[in-house]
Batch of 2 targets.
Target 1
Amino acid sequence: CVFSVEHPAAGYRKIFETVEELNEPLPTEVTGVLPSWLSGSLLRMGPGLFEVGAEPFHHLFDGQALIHKFDLREGHVTYHRRYIRSDAYVRAMAEKRVVITEFGTAAYPDPCKNIFSRFFTYFQGIEVTDNCLVNIYPIGEDFYAVTETNFITKVDPDSLETLKKVDLCDYLSVNGVTAHPHTDADGSVYNIGNCFGKNMSLAYNIIKIPPPQKDGSDPLKRSEVVVQLPSSERFKPSYVHSFGMTENHFVFVEQPVKINLLKFLSSWSLRGTNYMDCFESNEYIGTWFHVATRDPAAYLSSHKFRTSAFNVFHHINAYEDQGFIVVDLCTWKGSDFVYNYLYLANMRAEWDKVKESAMRAPQPEVRRYVLPLDIYRVEQGKNLVSLSYTTATAVLRSDGTVWLEPEVLFSGPRQAFEFPQINYSRCSGKNYRYVYGLGLNHFIPDRIVKLNVRTKDTRLWQEEDSYPSEPLFIPTPEKHMLTNINMPGAERPSFLLVLDARQMTELARASVNTIIPVTLHGTYKPR
Ligand SMILES: CCC[C@@H](CCO)COc1cccc([C@H](O)CCN)c1
Ligand SMILES: [Fe+2]
């Protein structure tokens, strides 16, 4: 199917504009047949406030966190949204300026202070942001809105009220954790985060938050670091966005986009420094794969997997088969940081500029890597992968490292298959067949794609001047549903789209008379 749809009218600009929160849920107009048994809440996070007074936010990940909820019940749908009352938001509203430095926007010292106290604010550690615009997920009975720092925010999934700011440093030695945890069948939540440690013991810590206990105690109180993975560069750990987990292993892909700790941990330079200023690309190191066993949790230091440089944000799935770990990823070729192309000015540019910018960016590709677990007693130079159904290779080299080459599952020029979602409860960590994704056309979300990872067949849902969000898969007894929010251009309101996940055909849509700004990730809470 041809992808290169054009967007000359630049309708996508509308999803990067500030909106107001709602005081109570809006009704929606449902067309088509919404199955009566589809009952629950679609919860999603994204930026909603793109400037404070005259001070604009510059990056896609700076806008103040807005939580969205589509409530589905007996064929009816309502839509609600509220700003999260994070410290970043509350203090910005109180002072009518950007108070907390965000991912790509530095806050400036309080202009009301005198020159000396302003000068010294540059020498205090920066206040880490709690702007939880990235995802929302359950930990036990509680729901948390998150970014990737050490602050996570407990929210009420019905009223969308902000309940409590939680500092993970009170429970774990991590500087932050990803917005993409894994949840086990027993309800345990696993995650990975940078640990800049005391004696600069630089590493990546994999943490486990155990399932809730009958005594109702907070699972966070019983959380622990289960295994530590070494950083390939002593003072420059990689940026980590997600990781893989199979039945018996953790998989961490260490990308060549590094955090310069001397910049990040110092009191930030005199000029207003933000998080984006602390990243740098290592052009020589390539990409390393690390594997650890889960139980007992132990790092496999002898398994040194190497391959050429790519950015990776979203793991699709990983599973074990005949002594191999199969790892499916959404990659972007090269070591140039993809987030450099996600400034709001780029996302709001007119279409020709958007295309020009994407020409220079790393190219997206869905890839399958296969990691042999048994790398002993084999001769060097021979492909160790003996799985019949993949062309991915792994070759032991004279220095003891294993060089990986992928099988490409999907590739299109500046057409990314991103924000991948699977039937998680059924397929995560297991051999699977389908993955659903958001199609980025020169970074602009303009289609939903279903990919069969075994045949590489794709099915598409696309509509003119419609800008979808990440599709979420809803496993249900009768049918497998796929729901996502579409934000078409201003001339038509936004709508929730309910697709039949088999045929990718529309079952129903619930339209609402307001624009819904871009959302990043979310979760479905069955009733
Ligand atoms: C120098 C990078 C530090 C790491 C945290 C430490 O492990 C990332 O920090 C942020 C800070 C603000 C917003 C974000 C967003 O979550 C990004 C996009 N998902 C990440
Ligand atoms: Fe993500």
Note: Residues 6 and 425 are 36 Å apart (CA to CA).
Target 2
Amino acid sequence: MIEVTDLVKRYGQTTAVDRLSFTVRPGVVTGFLGPNGAGKSTTMRMIVGLDTPTAGAATVNGRAYRTQSAPLREVGVLLDARATHPGRSARDHLLALGATHGIRAARVDAVLELVGLAEVARRRTGEFSLGMGQRLGIAAALLGEPHTLLLDEPVNGLDPDGIRWIRHLLRDLAAEGRTVFVSSHLMSEMALTADHLIIMGRGRLVADLPVAELVASAARGVLAGTPRPGELAALLHGPGVVITPQGNGVLQVTGLGAAEIGRRAAQFGIPLFELSAQQASLEEAYLELTADAVQYQGTSTAKAA
Ligand SMILES: Nc1ncnc2c1ncn2[C@@H]1O[C@H](COP(=O)(O)OP(=O)(O)OP(=O)(O)O)[C@@H](O)[C@H]1O
């Protein structure tokens, strides 16, 4: 369990993290989302004691990370996959890390196998591609079989095969009862990987909700098409139901599900030529949530022209 309480981080005039509070629970994958510069990395660095909060606190399993006696066994961290000695082999890098915690060579070889680096275990990490470096960083995070994992953009640099692999790995780790906290820019990726989302923008909490709830909030009503729209509208009318004619006999209906609309139409013999639940993409729902929080906005060439 990770608990962040009223966390604040200021760098001079910049408030990177602004009174942020959330809890990351075990047994599920929690995605940490936000636009560029939202404060995700700063928050993660404070959780693992690499940055000191200006105010507030962050704990892992009830204690500040810095006070853990064997942190590798408590918390697996991937913050900067490039943080290896370039002249050292992948295996030696992990052996050196493991040595500080009494972790044996057999475990090092097992994690190298798990992340798909067994064949290049003796190659210098300086020669690694971005994706290989990322896999090595994940190996380091898993080395101590920690109960809590904190991974900053782990899919960065991975090919589609690697992305699928990490998705399954994270889900498996959560299914074993571990706390899995993973940051990303990509809503689409998190929708496939995470069960719960913590979304921040401009240093603040924007949303803390199950993925399923975001999916539900993206519902845009039902389109029902009939040659007798007036009669259908009269049938569907009721409290909380909003009916907007779209032309050509198509009604947009909110407040009633497609099944109920179909049932009523059938009951009164009204033919339907269309009945479809409308869903905004998760990406759209996410962009709506974070619209006010985007700091670094690009302009499309069309707009700029
Ligand atoms: N060491 C630092 N000194 C000064 N400002 C910093 C420092 N680290 C981060 N910031 C600022 O804090 C804000 C949050 O940055 P942070 O890297 O935490 O965001 P992020 O959500 O991880 O972004 P990204 O997705 O682009 O990695 C930014 O405005 C950034 O410029």
Note: The chain has a mean pLDDT of 88.
